[in-house]
Every structure is written in C-alpha cells, then in structure tokens.
C-alpha cells in the first residue's frame, strides 16, 4: 500500500514538473531558446499568491488569477526586453547567457523585496483528503487538485495548439519561422504569446508547488526549474506530450528513489536516468530525429 | 496599371555583387517569367522582393505602393506571396492546417476567445475552414485535407505550396521553380493550374523556371538574368531566340 501512496505522490510532484516543463518546451519549440529564468517566474508567482492572500486578504482563487496575470506580463516583458533584441544574434549562447542573467536578476529582486528568510506558504487548497483501504491509503486534497489541474492544462493546451489559429501560428513558427513570416504570420506576436502562456502556467505551478512543499524563498524556483528542464529534455524538448510524460516520470522516479533508495541521492538518480535515456535516445522519449540539412 | 515595378535593385554579400541594377516592370494580370542560368541571382531577386533580404539600393513598388525595405510579414500583408524552390511546407501539420496557417492574419478572434471557446472562435474557425477548403478544391487537394503535408506525393506538395501562398490573398504570386522535379504530365497540369489561378484569383504571377517548355508555354514576357544583371527582356518567343540568351545558357 505504501508503494501506491509513493506512486501517487510521485505523480503529483511530477504533475508540477510537467506544468513547468511545458513552459520550457513551448518556448524552446517556438523561439528555439532555453529560458532558464522560467523557474524563477514560478517563485515570483508563488510570492504574488502569498502576499495577495496574507497581506491583502484576497480570496485564494482570485490570488492565483492575479498571480497568473502578473507572471504572464512578466514573461512577456522578459521576452521583449531581454531576449527579443538578441533573437538574431550570431551566437545562440548570447541569449542563453542572458536567460541565466535574468534568472539571477529575478532571484535578487525577490531577495530585495521579500527578504531572504523562508516564508511558510499557507494551505489554501481546501479539498478534503480521500481515505482508501481502511485508512491505509490517504490522498490529500492538494495531491488531487494538482493532478486534476495538470490534466486540465494538458487537455486545454493540446486543444489550443491544434485547434486555434494562434496555436497553428505557433506550430508554423516552430517548424519554419522564415516560411511562416512569408505567409503573413506575425512571428513576434506568436513568440510573445508563447512566453505569455508558459509564464501563466508557471504561476499555477508555483502555487501548486508551494501548496505541496510550503516553504518559499527567492531560490524556491531554481531546483524545480532545473528538474522541469530535465523533464522537458527527457520527454523530447519541443514536444508537449513529451514534457507531460517526462515531468510525471521524473516526479515518480524522484519520490520512489527517495522512498526506497536514499533521500540524499534521489536527485542524483533523477539525473542518472536522464543521462541513460539520452544515451539510448538522444532526442528524448518523444523527440523527433533532427535531419541534417544538406 | 503596373502590378510590380522594380528600379535599380542591388545587393552584395561581402564582395559578391549578387544582384546589380535590376529593373522589372510587370503589368497587372501578367504571367511573367524570370529565367537565367544557375547562380544568376533569380532566387535572390525573390528574396529581395519578399523582404528576406534588404536591398542595398533600389525601389520596389507593388501596385504603385512603395514596399521597399518592409519586414517580410508586412510585405506579405501588402500582397506578395511566394513558394519555394525547395518545398517549405509545414510538414507536421495537416494539408488543411497548412492553408489555415496562412489565413492566420486574415481572420481575427482573440486568444481569449480561442482558449475559452467563445462563439466568435467557432464562427471564425468555420469561416476559415470553408475558405481553406475552397482553395484546396481549386487544386484538387480537398480529399487529402486531413493527412499530413509530408505524406503528400511530391507533385501535390508543390500544389499545396501554391494553395498556401494564395490563402494569404496576394496581388502578386511569386513561384520559385514550380515545375522542379515534376514529370512532363505533371508539368502540363501545372501549366493549366497556373493559368487558372491567375484568372480565377485575379492576380499577377512572376515565376522562376528552368523548364523551357513551361516557360515558353505560359509566360507572356521574360526577363533574363545573368551574373546578377539583366541580360535582356521582352516577349517570350523573341527572348528565347536571342543569341545572347542561348550563349548564357549553353556557353560559347
């Protein structure tokens, strides 16, 4: 029974990784860059929810919506100010280094505004726990909410990308930016929208992450950000189902590793699995083989 | 009225003068050919006309409106659409979605409406489907509209590229070697399609082609490019018989 309990916890943690990984994978797919500041947007999102609820006394649902709006604008601003001017830079390293710079900037900004000490995040998810098998298996409301949210986001995003004109523009830009421009697609707006959606989802991820692990510091987003990036690579970067499956597998591996092997080396196990997957299938689980242009 | 007027277009890459003093004047509704040996700069001209490259000098006017130096997307919106020498379809998207992607900027609904499936989403998507299907019917591709573009046979991929370009509602259509890799039967079919497209959509067509059967079959006038400069221009039958043109193609 404890195995099932660990498995559910793993899926729950993995769902959070998956939501974050979607932001990495969409931005990579469309703007062909790694947005290493994505993890820190999560942290900002969590701080917005925390302060809205504890200082302003806002209803938690409205606080999350405000946090989504703030992160959406933040993501678009980061893209516009930091990344867009470098989009045609001769080396892709320029924008990568900038992303790392933005990451540190956000962390230090949060340090100045919110301070360095860990804040305890209130439990805002009021769903009741479910008790199964005579109380041997308890699933908390947070876990249920996390998994359901993740499923809704995956379905919603899949629908959006495949069935709306904005989604088609995203796919077109991701496949061939030059041809998309020549077909009248506004590439700048499309990339901006991608950052907006990824960052809006990051706000939700921040809220869910801090609901499950209720301690918030300016560095809270860094490690989940790296793990979600790993999940995106694991699933095949650029692929939406890949990010989802990669995230969930990563969460499950991490929790089972902690439970059955050692909580100290759980992270090492996660990254070891990534290395093995990439050795066997360099493009990740759902990645496409990149054809050499001749 | 002139559909396209180009004066003194120049571009260099490093020390290489790819296109020098290029002039072109095309009447509205014409079927015009741009020919020349390999490396003459034909595709470079297309890239200059569509904003992929910014010209060092020169003016490009589309139906009297100056479009020189505009961004690619803006030039497309002004009314220039093109196909590519090496097919550049959105391969992982369906045939229908390829055409609908080109309709992105013509039909409007907000992202909000798209996410929450508001009535405007359903209404506009329906219009887009109808428009895209109508264009695909012209090219006899409507039966294959749900398969991936990469799974179409080669000849049909070329047709889909033309369909996608037409979806952007152009005034001027640029075709870069539309008959490349086609067999003689497909080429004849393509010639009919190009003529039909010009009449049906009421547009002007400028095409690059090496297949002289196609060129002499449908182009009313030609410009011959050699080493980045205009060698000669005029009526097709006259130009193709000029000794200078034959020399440029076949050597002395």
Protein described:
The complex is a heterodimer of chains A (294) and B (252). By secondary structure, chain A is mainly α. Chain A has one domain. Chain A contains 11 helices and 4 strands. In chain A, the strands form 2 sheets. Chain A has a two-stranded antiparallel sheet with strand order 1-4. Chain A has a two-stranded antiparallel ribbon with strand order 2-3. In chain A, β2 (130-132) and β3 form a beta hairpin. The mean pLDDT of chain A is 92. Chain B has 252 residues and is of the alpha/beta class. Chain B folds into 2 domains: 1-79 and 170-252, P-loop containing nucleotide triphosphate hydrolases (Rossmann fold), CATH 3.40.50; 88-166, no CATH class. Chain B has helices at 42-49, 72-78, 95-102, 111-115, 119-138, 154-167, 184-200, 212-218, 236-240, 243-250, and strands spanning 2-13, 16-27, 31-35, 57-62, 65-66, 80-82, 172-176, 204-208, 221-226, 229-235. Chain B has a 6-stranded mixed sheet, sandwiched between helices. The longest helix of chain B is centred in the middle third of the chain and has 20 residues, at 119-138. The mean pLDDT of chain B is 92. Classes of the chains: A mainly alpha (294), B alpha/beta (252). Chain A: Pfam families: BPD_transp_2. Chain A: InterPro entries: ABC_transp_permease, BCAA_transport_permease. Chain A: The chain crosses the membrane at residues 6-27, 34-55, 93-116, 136-161, 182-209, 229-253, 265-286.
């Amino acid at each position: 029974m404890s195995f099932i309990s660990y498995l559910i916890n793993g899926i729950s943690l993995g769902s959070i990784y998956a939501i974050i990984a979607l932001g990495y994978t969409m931005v990579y797919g469309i703007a062909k860059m790694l947005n290493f500041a994505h993890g820190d947007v999560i942290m900002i999102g969590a701080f917005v929810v925390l302060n809205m609820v504890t200082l302003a006394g806002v209803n938690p649902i409205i606080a999350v919506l405000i946090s989504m709006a703030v992160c959406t604008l933040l993501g678009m601003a980061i893209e516009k100010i930091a990344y867009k001017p470098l989009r045609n830079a001769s080396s892709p390293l320029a924008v990568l280094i900038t992303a790392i710079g933005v990451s540190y900037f956000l962390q230090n900004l949060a340090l100045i505004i919110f301070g360095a000490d860990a804040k305890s995040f209130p439990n805002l998810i009021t769903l009741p726990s479910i008790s199964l098998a005579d109380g041997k298996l308890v699933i908390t409301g947070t876990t249920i909410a996390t998994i359901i949210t993740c499923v809704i986001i995956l379905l919603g995003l899949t629908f959006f990308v495949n069935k709306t004109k904005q989604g088609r523009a995203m796919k077109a830009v991701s496949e061939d930016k030059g041809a998309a421009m020549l077909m009248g697609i506004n590439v700048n707006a499309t990339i901006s929208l991608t950052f907006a959606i990824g960052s809006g989802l990051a706000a939700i991820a921040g809220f869910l992450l801090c609901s499950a692990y209720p301690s918030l510091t300016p560095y809270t987003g860094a490690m989940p950000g790296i793990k979600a990036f790993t999940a995106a690579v694991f699933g095949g970067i650029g692929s939406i189902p890949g990010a989802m499956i990669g995230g969930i597998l990563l969460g499950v591996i991490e929790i089972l590793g902690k439970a059955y092997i050692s909580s100290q080396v759980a992270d090492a196990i996660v990254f070891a699995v990534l290395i093995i997957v990439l050795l066997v299938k360099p493009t990740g689980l759902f990645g496409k083989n990149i054809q050499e242009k001749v | 009225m002139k559909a396209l007027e180009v004066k003194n277009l120049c571009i260099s890459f490093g020390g290489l003068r790819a296109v020098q003093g290029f002039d072109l004047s095309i009447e509205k509704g014409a079927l015009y050919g741009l020919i020349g040996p390999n490396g003459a700069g034909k595709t470079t001209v297309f890239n200059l006309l569509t904003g992929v490259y910014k010209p060092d000098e020169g003016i490009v006017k589309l139906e009297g409106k100056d479009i020189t130096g505009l961004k690619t997307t803006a030039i497309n919106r002004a009314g220039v659409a093109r196909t590519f020498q090496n097919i550049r379809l959105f391969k992982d998207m369906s045939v229908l979605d390829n055409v609908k992607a080109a309709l992105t900027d013509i039909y409007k609904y907000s992202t909000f409406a798209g996410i929450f499936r508001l009535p405007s989403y359903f209404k506009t998507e329906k219009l887009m489907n109808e428009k895209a299907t109508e264009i695909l019917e012209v090219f006899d591709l409507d039966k294959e509209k749900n398969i991936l573009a990469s799974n179409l046979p080669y000849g049909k991929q070329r047709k889909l590229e033309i369909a996608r370009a037409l979806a952007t509602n152009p005034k001027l259509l640029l075709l870069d070697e539309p008959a490349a890799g086609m067999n003689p039967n497909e080429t004849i079919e393509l010639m009919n399609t190009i003529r039909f497209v010009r009449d049906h959509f009421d547009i002007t067509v400028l095409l690059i082609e090496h297949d002289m059967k196609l060129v002499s079959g449908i182009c009313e006038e030609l410009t011959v490019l050699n080493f980045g400069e205009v060698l000669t221009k005029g009526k097709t039958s006259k130009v193709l018989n000029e000794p200078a043109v034959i020399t440029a193609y076949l050597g002395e």
